[in-house]
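TEACHING EXERCISE
Course module: macromolecular assemblies
Task: Read the component lines below, then compare them to the predicted structure of the full complex.
Student: A.B.
Group: 4
Components provided:
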Amino acid sequence: MRENLPFAIFCALVTGALSVPLLGLKLVSEGTSLAIEGADAETWMLISGGMLAVFLTQLFKSQLSNGLSGIKQSLPANPVSGLSDQKRGQLEKGLLFLVIGLAIIWPFWASRGSIDLATLVLIYVMLGLGLNIVVGLAGLLDLGYVAFYAVGAYSYALLYQYFGFSFWAALPIAGLLAALFGFLLGFPVLRLRGDYLAIVTLGFGEIIRIFLNNLTSLTGGPNGIGSIPKPTMPAVQFEPEFDIVQLEFSRRAKEEGNLPFHEFFGLDYDSATKVVFLYVLALILCLITVFVIRRLTRMPVGRAWEALREDEIACRSLGLSRTGIKLSAFTLGATFAGFAGCFFAARQSFISPESFTFIESAIILAIVVLGGMGSQLGVILAATLMIILPELAREFQEYRMLLFGLMMVLMMIWRPQGLLPMKRPRIELKEAA
Amino acid sequence: MLSVNGISMQFGGLLAVNGVSLEVNQDEIVSIIGPNGAGKTTVFNCISGFYRPTAGAITFNGQAIHNLPDFKISRLGMVRTFQHVRLFNKMTVIENLLVAQHRHLNTNLLSGLFKTPAYRRQEDKAMERAAYWLRKVDLLEFANREAGTLAYGQQRRLEIARCMVTEPDILLLDEPAAGLNPRETKDLDELILSIRHCYNVSVLLIEHDMGLVMGISDRIYVVNQGTPLASGAPDDIKANPDVIKAYLGES
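Instructor-supplied answer key:
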């Protein structure tokens, strides 16, 4: 403690030297000239309180850091680290089914607002899982992932505006277009790794956004595109004749030939059904994403991604084409962002380049890192936290970023491997017990 | 089968390899020896496509390969190991062998997503081949362990097995006995001989362990300071005064 004393006094003085002129002195205009005025007693109290706080933290620095590491030790140790790979796999599968089960029965008692929020969470789960392919599995740091999300969203918006495409027709096209953009981005950045790759992808993300912003004649620029129709539900009609009809969730059908959902089923109109339908749709898209990516990780291409992350030179010596593997990761990752973007456009009914700024890429990347690279359950958990916490902390709006930063710092100290670091499912040889 | 004609490799002002030629015929075990820094590994890197030689030509099974990228050369049936073992350390032993069979597998995404029978058959076959080679190099019991946790000698054997599951025509081994104890070196000796004998795979070898080199090589090339010094059968090399001079220094 004694050895900290001089430094603690120094730090307190620096705090004082900084805060007295900044907070303690005020400029007041008196007629045409400015006068300096001292602050009120309360501010002086706060300044001296701040100095005292800095002094004390510096003085008891070692005790404090001991206390912090005590917290770290008291945190539950990684609950799965002791298990064998097989048990771990079973556990992950079980938990995944549990989460899915909860997600299915949950809307029955949840409020409309929370279902709407959950839909947003599901969009981010989809984005997180998609980026997880690129960052977590293939180990390519992509900071411009939001570009593919934008491509998906604008595909649907533009296809609707100019060609009258419905959501269902636009969904696969949005995925394909995003994949195409992923492929195009993949080509020039194949030779890059690490920091360089991050910078180029960051640039790509911005290019797409600025492009959309300035192509006013086509995209409406910063005004965005509005009145994008919500997804319809396909249903089989038996009377008057056998047909497949699209059900809308508004009071009256807007499109020719579509029926309102409540009329078709003979129910009273309830505006909440629309919210629930969007939730269910997002859930289905999410489940497909989870399933496809789970399969991918067990397939040769998933193994190749991990191998390329581990040792590129060894991969090449075994005849694996670096180009093909990296492109497949970029393309597949982008596809899921395209689907998510298409759904996002349909849910919002309005999109503008504002929705696709860099902060979105950062949030999605934070979800992947927070969840634990490569772990699906981790990504789901992290997406839930990252979207719901800021909503709960709406009163602390100004401090949101501060809390974000604090959370990230604490994570890096306590759980650098993510919340639920789970390994890629292993393929086991049965003969070798 | 493999013929290297006067290749040179220049890095800026440094001529690392100068006019090296060599020949490997079907079912032969050929060694390259030379003092440290003689350019042996550079020759390997040129042959396997990691470097593009600045002069000279390399043909493999009648095809010129000195302008092909490394992964294409490997697909033609020439695979290599590395001086410092390069395994996929975080992947299990069996997965290391599955990755190596990547190009033999059905990489069609849809058939994998729906686990079509053809896809399953291929995966099973890949597993079988991997298990076969694990038994062969005596690593079957470690199949589900992470490759990085194996002992050094086992990692060396795994690297050779990983090459062999790609079903190559020629195997390039870069100092396979480095860091092995005498017993392991003897096992390696037998493994290389059986690879040649049972699978008709030619072997090109860089090695410092003279006991191993003299015992198994059909022919030996000596490289010193990037230039070819001598070539011939092991007994000729042993008696060659230039080689002795290069290794022991002039007196």
